[in-house]
Specification:
Blueprint: E1 8-11, H1 21-36, E2 40-43, H2 57-67, H3 91-103, E3 107-110, H4 114-126, H5 142-150, E4 156-159, E5 166-171, E6 175-180, E7 188-190, H6 198-208, E8 213-217, H7 224-233, E9 240-244, E10 247-248, H8 264-270, H9 274-283, H10 297-303, E11 314-315, H11 318-331, H12 334-348, H13 359-369, H14 379-383, H15 396-399, H16 408-422, H17 430-443, H18 448-460, H19 468-475, H20 477-496
Parallel strand pairs: 1-2, 8-9, 10-11
Antiparallel strand pairs: 3-4, 4-7, 5-6
Helix pairs in contact: 1-10, 6-7, 9-11, 12-13, 16-17, 16-18, 16-20, 17-19
The protein binds glutamic acid.
Length: 497
């Protein structure tokens, strides 16, 4: 590539399902490179395999990118100068290219039926030979082939791979790679349904769309000599190839669903922040140095370079992702966090809680929880008790642990004293609430911790909550006292029965 050439890179997913994190990481790196180089990022949908097409997948791909803040400069929904951006709408281009290759002697029609090909493979297997197309139509007279095709006979078009010599190409991460041509058979470029294979389609499109760098997964390396031959036969310029490493699961196999890997939109639903997942994916397989891990999108667009990607597969470190998410939550500007919390609570809190969610209340409780959560999905169970006047009375067993085991009468009494002591409090603030409750504990000769944990369950309904006294201040005096009395009564009834 010449220095002056414009950087144009693409993300070219096949709409075969929800995009998993490995695929999206590829898009993210490619996008970062476009931003860094002031180039263009193109989204192209490779939908030529009609049998694998999944309804809704294009939308899921686009939504995954949008959620991560990855915007494309040209694509199926917004168009652009090199459209259409769905391969299924570009069939004529592939047909023209395939016919040109036949004319120039680089390709030929093959009429072998599926049965014939199966038989061929079975024979090869029986003879312990690798299964490959045996070239049976390679020397078939062109004129006869044309007649049969014109008469409507089903056929595919195959590329005539050179049978001798070798094919080399350069990969940005790995340098020069060479394959022996005799290892490669005459592969299909146009199928009998008129759709191209990936091999032909991407060569035609990456050329037509003026793509400077083809970034894709390393599983394509063994096919690249075929692509080199195609580029050359069509007289096209070879792009820069960047074959990125895969992500591995904890058992060393390619990361998949069975490792608990999720689709990008599932991470969104589970409460990960887009910024955190973006940062995490960017550094899974790329590093600036041996210690920096936290990067904003902006910083990444300055320092990221494709050439610094790792050649080796990287592990998917779920613990690091969670840690990073917690860190982003803690570091976020308070107002941004409040609006993310409000959105999340709108979605997660039970339907009976009136909407819209009280913004001022969320603002009040945000400082109490921002240090405590790692995932947004934890939020509603942690703070739900702030939004309703009647929390369900916690089960007796919740109260009667540790010191209170088999002592429901004492627990009931302790709560009654608390309510009585809190009732006259004039200034309802965390500090005074705490002081009052410490005094009550002393009076009852109970350890403050045991006493507070009982009150926490009564007031919040859970054993794990935001800081107790601050929470009580927010909930308000009347409601707190009601909840404490209710808990006390229910514990007393337990003793009576
Ligand atoms: N459509 C191919 C796939 O989804 C993409 C390969 C490429 O980026 O060229 O695997």
């Amino acid at each position: 590539m010449q220095e002056t050439e414009k950087i144009r890179v693409r993300f070219a997913p096949s709409p075969t399902g929800d995009p998993h994190v490995g695929v999206i990481r590829q898009a993210l790196w490619t996008w970062l490179y476009a931003k860094k180089m002031d180039g263009q990022f193109i989204l192209r949908i490779e939908d030529t395999d009609q049998t694998r097409y999944v309804e809704g997948a294009v939308e899921r791909i686009q939504n995954s990118l949008k959620w991560l803040g990855i915007k494309w400069d040209e694509g199926p929904d917004i168009g652009g100068p090199y459209g259409p951006y769905f391969q299924s709408q570009r069939k004529h281009l592939y047909k023209d290219a395939a016919e040109r290759l036949i004319e120039d002697g680089f390709a030929y029609r093959c009429f072998a039926t599926p049965d014939e090909l199966r038989e061929m493979r079975e024979k090869q297997q029986a003879a312990k030979l690798p299964p490959r197309y045996d070239g049976r139509y390679r020397n078939y007279p062109k004129i006869d082939a044309q007649k049969r095709a014109a008469a409507g006979e089903s056929c595919v078009i195959r590329f005539a791979m050179p049978q001798e010599g070798s094919t080399s190409f350069s990969d940005l991460l790995r340098g020069e790679i060479t394959f022996e041509n005799k290892e490669l058979d005459d592969f299909v470029i146009l199928k009998s349904d008129g759709f191209p294979t990936y091999h032909l389609a991407h060569v035609v499109d990456d050329t037509a769309m003026k793509i400077s760098h083809v970034t894709r997964g390393e599983e394509w390396i063994p096919s690249t000599p075929r692509h080199v031959q195609l580029f050359n036969a069509l007289g096209y310029k070879i792009p820069t190839w960047v074959h990125a490493p895969v992500i591995l699961g904890p058992d060393g196999g390619k990361l998949s669903k069975r490792h608990g890997a999720k689709f990008v939109l599932e991470y969104a639903e589970e409460g990960y922040l887009s910024d955190a997942l973006f940062n995490f994916l960017a550094i899974t397989g790329w590093a600036l140095d041996d210690h920096t891990e936290i990067f904003s999108r902006k910083r990444l667009t300055e320092v990221f370079d494709l050439k610094d990607l790792s050649k080796n597969p990287s592990g998917f470190d779920q613990t690091k992702l969670e840690w990073m998410n917690g860190l982003y939550l803690r570091e976020m500007e308070e107002d941004d966090l409040v609006s993310i919390f409000v959105q999340r609570l709108e979605h997660d809190l039970p339907a009976e809680i009136p909407r819209p969610i009280n913004w001022a209340l969320v603002k009040e409780l945000t400082p109490l929880v921002r240090e405590r959560i790692k995932l947004l999905s934890e939020l509603s169970s942690l703070v739900g008790f702030f939004f309703t006047s009647d929390i369900p009375t916690p089960a007796t067993e919740e109260f009667l642990t540790k010191k209170w085991k088999d002592r429901s009468g004492d627990a009931s009494e302790a709560l009654k004293f608390t309510a009585n002591d809190l009732e006259p409090l004039i200034d309802w603030n965390a500090e005074d609430i705490q002081q009052t409750m410490r005094n009550t504990a002393e009076k009852l000769e109970t350890r403050a911790g045991d006493f507070f944990s009982l009150t926490r369950i009564a007031v919040t309904g859970t054993r794990v909550s935001p800081p107790l006294f601050e929470s009580m201040e927010i909930i308000g005096q009347e409601l707190c006292i009601n909840r404490i009395r209710r808990a006390s009564n229910s514990l007393r009834n337990t003793t009576d029965s």
